[in-house]
């Protein structure tokens, strides 16, 4: 292996490592989420994200029509 190939491969490995580390940081700190996926399904009343949730189900729950979801609240 020549010096030039070594440097190119080392740069690629460092770049890949940085991307993996950055992704792991974002996932670990909770800054990345799948849009439209509700972790608590039909239990909107106990969800901490209810105020900012864009899910249609959450909008119905906020309006007070939570009979559709079997809630007794």
N→C terminal distance: 69 Å
Shape: rod-shaped
The topology string of helices and strands comes to HH
Question: Pairing-aware structural class of the strands and helices?
Answer: mainly alpha
Helix content: 40-55%
Q: What is the number of strand segments?
A: 0
Q: What's the number of helices?
A: 2
Instruction: Please summarize the sheet with the most strands.
Output: none
Low-pLDDT stretches are: none
Beta strand % = under 5%
Q: In short, what is this structure?
A:
This protein is mainly α and about 70 residues long. The protein has helices at about 5-30, 55-65.
Q: Which terms summarize this structure?
A:
mainly alpha, rod-shaped, 2 helices, 73 residues
Structure description:
The chain contains 2 helices and no strands. The chain starts with a helix and ends in a 10-residue tail after the last helix. It has 73 residues and is mainly α. The longest helix is centred in the first third of the chain and has 26 residues. The mean pLDDT is 76.
Describe the secondary structure blueprint for this structure.
Blueprint: H1 3-28, H2 56-63
